Amino acid sequence: MEVQYICPTAYDSSVYLVNRKVLIDAGMNSALIIKELEKYIKLNELELIILTHCHYDHTAAAASISEKSGAKVGIHKADLEGVNDEYLSVSVLFGEKSPTVKPVITYEEGDQIPIGNGEFLEVIHTPGHSRGSICLYEPASKSLFSGDTVFPGGGFGRMDFEGSEPEKMLGSVEKLTKLDVKNLYSGHGAPTDRDGNKQIMASYRMLSMMMGV
Ligand SMILES: [Zn+2]
Ligand SMILES: [Zn+2]
Predict the structure, then answer these.
(1) How far does residue 9's CA lie from ligand 1's centre (Å)?
(2) How many angstroms is it from 183 CA to the middle of ligand 2?
(3) pLDDT value for 77
(4) Are 73 and 51 in contact (CB under 8 A)?
């Protein structure tokens, strides 16, 4: 699997271009992100935009990127209504209207999304940060795209947003500890190409402590 890390500003989510045809999250600033993408591909080569969850910082640019590239947009079914809701998408916190993107594909636990070269991303439903948060696992390279569920260094996503399900977060992170992960591509901050398992275990321990388990 080939991955390009695209992060145009400090406020956008991390955006990943996978195998030159699938985008994982879209960020907020479509003009800058399209400019970055065009360093690697022609925009019409983009086939799919997968949103790890419905939050504005990951989804605001998806409408424009999808329109200009023709790429379809997918999200977990439990976050579908959240995308176009000012509170569930947290766009109000950015002083903006909710994203206008209309995902046409919905995912659920266990779905395998083909990404070319015989490779696929497995959908892991990890509610907590939002109802329909997903992580995406690519087994051949042991890579995990973790959205805002876990971050390198023992971090994890906030659970105090509209639509958060804090009672489900520990179970979600525990699911991730069962995977064999080398490369961790999270929704904010630079990716890391070593010790994915250790990083996820650190997040699990921090979260357990916070939850008093
Ligand atoms: Zn985020
Ligand atoms: Zn988020």
Answers:
(1) 13
(2) 20
(3) 98
(4) yes
Task: Using the mean position of ligand 2's atoms as its centre, give its distance from the Cα of residue 188 in Å.
Answer: 9
Q: How far is the CA of 38 from the centre of ligand 1 (A)?
A: 23
**CATH code of the region 3-211:** 3.60.15.10
CA of 45 from ligand 2 middle (Å) equals 27
Cα of 71 from ligand 1 centre, angstroms:
22
Q: Where are the domains of the chain?
A: 3-211
d(CA 74, CA 64): 15
Distance from residue 53's CA to the centre of ligand 2 (Å)? 7
Residue 26 CA neighbour count, 13 Å, CB half: 34
Which tokens in the block code for residue 156? 């994890």
Ligand 2 centre from 160 Cα, in Å? 11
Compute, in angstroms, the gap from residue 148 CA to the centroid of ligand 2: 5
State the Cα–Cα distance between residues 195 and 163, nearest whole angstrom: 31
| For the CA of 130, the nearest ligand | 2
Q: What is the pLDDT of residues 44-102, one digit of tens each?
A: 999 999 999 999 999 999 999 999 999 999 999 999 999 999 999 999 999 999 999 99
pLDDT digits (tens, 9 = 90+) for 134-162: 999 999 999 999 999 999 999 999 999 99
In contact, 170 and 211? CB cutoff 8 Å = yes
Q: CA-to-CA distance for 192 and 149, rounded, in angstroms?
A: 15
Which is nearest to 90 in space by CA: 128, 50, 130, 127? Answer: 130
